[in-house]
Amino acid sequence: MAGRDRMATGSAADARASFEAGDYRRCREAALAGLAERPDEPALLRLAGLASAELDLDDAAGLLERAVALEPGDGEAWLVLGETLAGLGSLEEAGAAFRRAAELRPGDVDALVGLGHVSYAAGQADEAIASLEQAVARDPGHVGALRGLSGMYRSAGRLEEALAMARRVVEQRPRDALALMEVAELSLELGLLDEASAVFARLLEVDDEPEHEVYAYHGMIEVEVRRERWRRALDLAVDCTRVDRLGRTTDVLAFVVAQVFGEADRPSPSRAEIDEALARSRAEHRRRHAEALG
Question: What is the pLDDT of residues 260-288, one digit of tens each?
């Protein structure tokens, strides 16, 4: 028996080291080897389940469910199970796991944040917002809770509250392009054009992704179009064309030129078409950063 215990202990150490090193296949193999000797060892079940989840294997949830069944009072185990189930798209089961984790670990906001996100994905917006509000109350600087709450408030039409949350993310992460975009867009929607312009200009400084300068210029141009300050819009459009290798600013420039100098022989795009094009540009910019954030 002592030999089996030593083997299981060695397997757990090997599995843990492999997981921390990002070698999930080796982690899983070591954990399963240990489970062959001690099939009811929660630590090995958890490591095997986490590794399987990273490898997108079907047994991940089952392994983690066995772990929590053996240690039902372990809040961290419930949290890990919730995160894994959420990643697998099992939203109802993930929500139940996060709720249990929150009961067992009332000071840990991660369970509340996880519950907020899966509740929202399941169409339970009120519960989602309440969970994230609790998380922010307990940890005012939790970026995941602040970012999620900003998006949920925005979808609910609570724009002032959404902007307040987005500003708090920027306070925590001044170079966070996605948070800056949220502040800029919400400022546009609320008619806070000075703030919107300043934040789009800030994006021009901090967003160092290739060819993203175009998006920041488009934001500043959109502000000036809304103000009908055509000369300033023209200057920005000209500057934008210098970095726009794909011609995404051609129609915008033609429209602004027509406002400054009058229509040429060839009709320029309409205001509605330009508004739509600039909105698409913002949406594309947001999508790129959201995908990068994961």
Answer: 998 777 788 999 999 999 999 999 999 99
Q: Domain residues for 38?
A: 1-71
Residue after which a domain boundary falls, among 173, 192, 226: 173
Residue 145 and residue 114: Cα distance in Å, rounded? 9
111 and 34 within one domain: no
Mean pLDDT of the region 26-54:
91
pLDDT greater than 90 at residue 107:
no
Distance CA 53, CA 62 (A): 11
Are 210 and 285 spatial neighbours (Cβ–Cβ below 8 Å)?
A: no
Domain end: 141, 173, 205, which one?
173
Q: Write the DSSP symbol of residue 266.
A: S
Q: Do 123 and 186 fall within a single domain?
A: no
Is 78 contained in some domain?
A: no
Q: In whole angstroms, what is the distance from residue 95 CA to residue 114 CA?
A: 8
265 in any annotated domain: yes
- 3 pLDDT more than 50: no
> pLDDT > 70: what percent of the chain?
96
Most confident of the following: 48-52, 76-80, 150-154, 268-272: 150-154
Ramachandran bin of 229, using left for φ above 0, alpha for ψ from -120 to 50, beta for the remaining angles:
beta
Q: What is the CATH number of the domain that holds 29?
A: 1.25.40.10
> In this structure, are residues 53 and 60 in contact, taking their beta carbons and an 8 Å threshold?
yes
Integer CA distances (angstroms), 173 to 108, 147, 285, in order: 22, 11, 18
Closest CA to 225 of 263, 253, 266, 246: 253
Assign 10 a pLDDT band (cuts: 50, 70, 90). low
Q: How many domains does one find in the chain?
A: 3
Domain membership flag for residue 77: no
CA distances from residue 147 to 123, 257, 290 in whole angstroms, order as listed: 18, 38, 11
